[in-house]
Write a structure and sequence with these properties.
By secondary structure, the protein is α+β, with helices and mostly antiparallel strands. It has helices at 45-65, 71-81, 94-99, 112-119, 154-166, 194-228, 233-260, 265-274, 278-289, 297-305, 309-312, 315-322, 340-343, 351-361, 364-368, 372-376, 382-406; strands at residues 86-90, 100-101, 104-109, 124-127, 133-141, 170-173, 180-184, 187-190. The chain has 3 domains: 66-191, DNA integrity scanning protein, DisA, N-terminal domain (YojJ-like (1); 193-335, Ferritin; 351-407, DNA polymerase, domain 1. The longest helix is centred in the middle third of the chain and has 35 residues, at 194-228. The radius of gyration is 26 Å and the shape is elongated. The N and C termini lie far apart (55 Å). The relative contact order is 0.10.
């Protein structure tokens, strides 16, 4: 692993490394990590996205354990109020035990009071993976001094090296600066006061509302173009672009919710409401317009998620991911939907039935012009469902045309 260089941090409290690398590429987000060396380009965007997602899930999981309302957070607050510092290792393993020197085995049930009491002995504390038992207390951690660290204080250097070497999350409580730092693998996150997190979370939520409103607009415009059979590559990519922007803002809010704990319940409800149907919209658009089916749906969505924020604004980058050919008409090239998206709007139509309809008719326009007899011939449809599909598509067509005139 390359050693870090060029960091201007002088103490743990001034280090602004907060977020996992998944959020580094977002605009106007405090996510740049000055400690990380430039990373080589991923040969496979999907593999890179999977690795990042795995690391992000670990950070969110640990943030949930130290969020307000949990016993571990209460114990940390007690340590800070008592004017003490601490190193807390979340999990035991052979790698952790190799670094342990001295101290004693406690193996007692966890409580906030017990945690603050054993922290007074100044040694490191080792909990089980679920933070339900205090396994060891007053131990000295002796990590490999060759493991890179950007910290200057002894406690924080030991905490970061232990996290890197063992793969277990480590919490460091600064005695002098009253700051709590969380280390997960090579990621550092500084816990902040609730008011600061709520302020940023509300700002992000307002941004999400605007982004979702714009997504609804371009989605409605795409529906109208589909009915009128005038869809272009630009129309499709604009919807995918907006859906991806919405998804990324939602990921940031998810991190805030995890850190807020019980104080983030209202925020979480608002997030779920705003994100309703966004993921399905992304999937349906890809299924409708992907020119060839050489790539799996999950692979395409992962590659879209791996595009850096500044490149997401270039629709041609998205066109490459979906394998659109832009040789003839460029972004204004006409494309035809298969019909998955509109069929999903018909009530009580099973996904398997929609698949059979698309397989039989291959395009939305042929579906719109299909007679009841044509629909009835499809396996598993039947006369009643054929009538429901025909009426549902007619209503969608009328609604799309009316929407065109109302905009």
């Amino acid at each position: 692993m390359a050693r870090r260089s060029g960091c201007s941090c002088t103490a743990a409290g001034t280090c602004r490394r907060r977020w996992p690398r998944a959020w580094v590429d977002r605009p106007r987000s405090p996510t740049h990590d000055p400690h990380r060396p430039p990373q080589p380009e991923q040969t496979s965007p999907t593999q890179g996205a999977d690795r990042v997602a795995s690391r992000d899930d670990r950070v969110l999981s640990v943030l949930g354990k130290v969020s307000p309302g949990n016993a571990l957070r209460e114990g940390i607050d007690r340590i800070i109020k008592s004017g003490k510092g601490a190193i807390i290792v979340l999990g035991d393993s052979q790698q952790v035990e190799k670094l342990v020197s001295g101290g004693f085995k406690l193996n007692a049930e966890f409580s906030a009071q017990r945690l603050s009491e054993v922290a007074k002995m100044d040694g490191a504390i080792i909990l089980d993976d679920q933070a339900e038992r205090i396994l060891y207390a007053n131990v000295q951690l002796v990590p490999d001094p060759g493991v890179p660290t950007a910290e200057t204080g002894t406690r924080h250097r030991s905490a970061e090296r232990t996290a890197r070497q063992t793969g277990k999350p480590v919490i460091s409580v600064s005695e002098s600066m009253r700051i709590v730092s969380l280390y997960v693998d090579d990621t550092k996150h500084v816990l902040e006061d609730i008011s600061s997190i709520l302020f940023r979370a509300n700002q992000a939520l307002a941004t999400l509302e605007r982004y979702r409103s714009r997504l609804d607009e371009v989605s409605a415009a795409l529906s109208t173009s589909e009915i009128e059979n005038v869809v272009t590559v630009r129309d499709v990519l604009t919807v995918l672009q907006r859906a991806e922007m919405v998804r990324r803002i939602a990921e940031e809010i998810t991190a805030y919710v995890a850190e807020l704990g019980v104080d983030g319940r209202l925020l979480e409800l608002q997030l779920h409401e705003l994100m309703d149907s966004v993921e399905s919209e992304r999937s349906l658009v890809v299924r409708d317009y992907q020119p060839t089916r050489r790539k799996r749906l999950e692979s395409v969505l992962s590659e879209l998620g791996a595009i850096p924020a500044e490149r997401l604004l270039d629709l041609r980058i998205l066109a490459d991911v979906l394998a659109f050919s832009l040789v003839d008409g460029g972004l204004e090239s006409p494309v035809t939907p298969r019909g998955y998206r509109q069929l999903s709007r018909i009530p009580r139509l099973p996904a398997r039935a929609a698949d059979r309809l698309v397989e039989r008719f291959s395009s939305l326009q042929r579906l719109l012009h299909a007679s009841l007899g044509d629909l009835d011939e499809v396996e598993g449809i039947g006369e009643a469902r054929a009538r429901s599909i025909s009426e549902g598509l007619s209503r969608l067509a009328e609604s799309a045309v009316m929407d065109r005139y109302n905009r």
